[in-house]
Amino acid sequence: MTEVSVNVAGSSQDVPTVVVNGVDGASIRQIKALQRPISVAGVMEHALQHRERVGVQDFVLLEDFRSEAAFIDNLRKRFHENIIYTYIGNVLISVNPYKPLPIYTEEKTKLYYKKAFFEAPPHVFAIADNAYRSLVYEHREQCILISGESGSGKTEASKKVLEYIAARTNHLHNVETVKDKLLQSNPLLEAFGNAKTHRNDNSSRFGKYMDIQFNYEGAPEGGHILNYLLEKSRVVSQMSGERNFHIFYQLLAGADQGLLQHLKLEGRPEMYKYTTDNSPSIQKLNDAEQFRTVLEAMKVIEISESEQREIFEIVASVLHLGNVKFVQNEKGYAEILRDNNSIHVAELLKVDLTKLREALTSRTIDARGDVVNTPLDLEQAQYARDALAKAIYEKHFSWLVSRLNASLAPKDKDPRASVMGILDIYGFEIFPKNSFEQFCINFCNEKLQQLFIELTLKQEQEEYLREGIEWEPVDYFNNIVICDLIEARHQGIISILDDECLRPGDATDLSFLEKLSQKLDGHAHFKSHRKVDVKTQKLMGRDEFCLVHYAGEVTYNVNTFIEKNNDLLFRDMQNLMTSSGNNTVGCCFKDLNLLSKKRPETAITQFKISLNELIKILSSKEPSYIRCIKPNDFKMPMQFDEKLVSHQVKYLGLMENLRVRRAGFAYRRTYEAFLERYKCLSSDTWPNYRGQARDGVQKLVEALQYEQEEYRMGNTKVFIRFPKTLFETEDAFQIKKNDIATIIQSRWRGHWQRREYLKMRQSAIIMQKWIRRFLAQKQKERRRKAADVIRAFIRGFITRNGPETIENRRFLGIAKVHWLKRLSTRLPKKVLDLSWPHCPATCQEASRELHRLHRAHLARKYRLALTPAEKKQFELKVLAEKMFKSKKNSYPSSICDRFMEDRLNEEHRVLRNTFMASPSWPTGEQLIYSCEAIKYDRRGYKPRERALLASDKALYVLDAAGRKTYKLKHRLPLDKLRVIVTNETDGLVLIKIPQELKKDKGDLIISVSHVIEALTIVTDYTKKPEIIEIVDTRTIAHDLVNGKQGGTIEVTHGPQPAIQRAKSGNLLVVAATP
Predict the structure, then answer these.
(1) H or E segment to which residue 349 belongs
(2) What pTM was computed for the model?
(3) Dihedral sign, CA of 934, 938, 942, 945?
(4) N or C: the chain end with fewer CB closer than 10 Å?
(5) By its UniProt entry, which CDD domains does this protein fall under (predicted)?
């Protein structure tokens, strides 16, 4: 059965595919020939069927586009599905996932190569590829604007753009060095321009605009970087829990001892005022690793070792400068505390120590030709120290950017070169307390928002004009009124601030606020404390003013506005730095016009000029936008704070952007793409429309019954006004796909089966012919082999009893196999069965070995089946064999009987138990053997009945004749006895009693019926077989007490065994004749 699956247009690989299981390669090629051309429609329409779960991938398709709640809900759905990118038209919204995602692999990168913007899911790579293709193929210079608040992922987005450009141009030659420099510029700038804040561990504390220059082939050949508004105040002070710029910690953690000694540094940040450090040890290890990355980047950027040393000397001088301490002398002026810090600063900056100390504690003022040296008080000296540290670091950072630019500069000027810009700049900031820096940042964002609205409207108007669609004016908020409020000449906030800074007299932050209130109180976007309502006055301080930005109201505190705008560095310090022997420091300060009496431009004016230059640059390029959003303040994955996101959506102007984009038509596609996807919804266009694509789309919209207000037909595109119309079309398409798939499958199965039948019939005829031939050949071969086998078998049988040869080897092998099979069924079952089946002559050695192994197996099997009592019997029998075999003639008769520990009759057992319960039996002794015996007197050899009890300690000889209880006659310790027996079949035992047992009258002569049993059991317990002596003599002497000889025992043979007194007066032992 052939399985056919059909996919009718839909995904990024929107090809109508037919997958057939069990089809050969040629058939696959035929199937591919039947497929329709690749659709240019992308995954946007395909993804609409999943919109309830993952939302829409373009906010333009939101039904309720005016609802901020719907906007945020769509973001939340996609975020929880790990989809962090969404479009608003051609604007990319990126939500920081705070975790690695597998969406930047080489495979994902290639997915976006040469794809139309909506042909693949939303991604930063799509923005980068679209900009790159417009640059290379259409020769339109590009810029990518990345904005968002700290921690939203702006820096990472700019890195991904650079990485994509590097991967995209990987096939071009001679670009490796340039790409390496572009990529390595990031870690270098991050080290000197980024810092850890509450919101972000790697927060960019400056704005960056990078131009990448491409040659006519599209290969990067150089670049240029502009930096904006470095947060130099961070050099001298940071909020609790934040850090200074990374390079300070990286230098202290990663520099080797030689460099640290040269820089007069200790590897502990807490030793320096400017680097209070609460970082965990893991962060310090990371700082050391990052320092190695910085060194590697410097090598790639071609910064020489001498320049690197000077750079680190500057960084170290800032650390030492922060540790310079002042004391107040008796005149109330500041003096430098005599320590090594100022000495280290002078050595590292290569300036005169005396002049450095003078510059830090006094100021030279040129008053109309009169030069006056004014000492500084304690506060002024500290200000001068911090101002010098900030100036050194800021100018050094600008020098580093210019040094990067020199390294990135193209070698040759190419008139055909084009440029792509990447702007990574701070987003709109609204903090609980906003100061001068936030004012500058928000002014920058107002200008960029103004540019964004203008360029977006311009793009929309141009597309409508190209397509011949009537342009409908869009009502939107034009924030030029706010820009003018800030930067208008003579009347704007910047002019008022500069006037206050430059006027004679004591200008203060409050006097500046007073001027603002006087001149701007009537402005709709300015609020002062004295003009707002009572409720707002309670919330606003008297040193604050409020601006109504496009993103909402922001209250600014004027404290330090004047100081930060002046940004003064005393002329004495400028002169001193210009004379520095450190070439980098001298280069940083050489451009200052020290002889000019004109006051330098203020910080806000410099920023305004550079910002206007940036706007001019961006206006000359085709923009792409990436808006970055952070989902929570805790840097945690899968946490979506709707309130925080709503705040960012507002100040990024996303709702305004969406409203402008939706003012016209929500969806537009080329006629070819729209017809290719939805042609199955009309019988007039399915399966193929032969006419113009525009006419085919017209028939489609008529079949779908679009209202006139729902769509417009442009020159090359169809425009659909409402997302609902598109959703209904897509849902109809998803339903129709099933019907189409059924039709295609049925037709294909019929065609396939007919073709398969014809092929199988033809194949069967051919196969039958060849199989018959093959079978005949195989049968002939089998017969020949059978004859060879029979002949070999006969020859083997004839020579079976001879040595093994080539002729009989196979026969003998078969004989061995059959013998082994017979043997397996005839093996002896019992250990005493010594029979063994007959074997062929060639197997005799194997038969002997197998017989041995089988006997061992049966013995082992029998042994493992023994009970503990049976095992004990065997152990006793083995011991008896060891003691008596070939030594005593009665041993063979003892083999067949089981050894018993108790040989007493029932009556004697009762007496024994009574005796053992009496005091005569010591407590704790254990009985090991008991039997009846005959004791012979030492004189006269009169026989007397006795009972023998053997315990674990002693041998008891008991008199039981005619008594109700046993009478203890002898108690003999086992460890002091020696026993003599004859080698005959008698049961005589001569117990040799040592002399120390004086109460016994001499050796005991006893006759025991089971003498081997008794001696074996006692010996098994005592483990002393040496106390038993087996004698091979005809006479045995026995002793009396004190070693006197008592008599002689004669041993002889007779027909009947007996023990009696002989005529000679000796004891005669008659053993049975063997």
Answers:
(1) helix 341-349
(2) 0.61
(3) negative
(4) N
(5) MYSc_Myo1
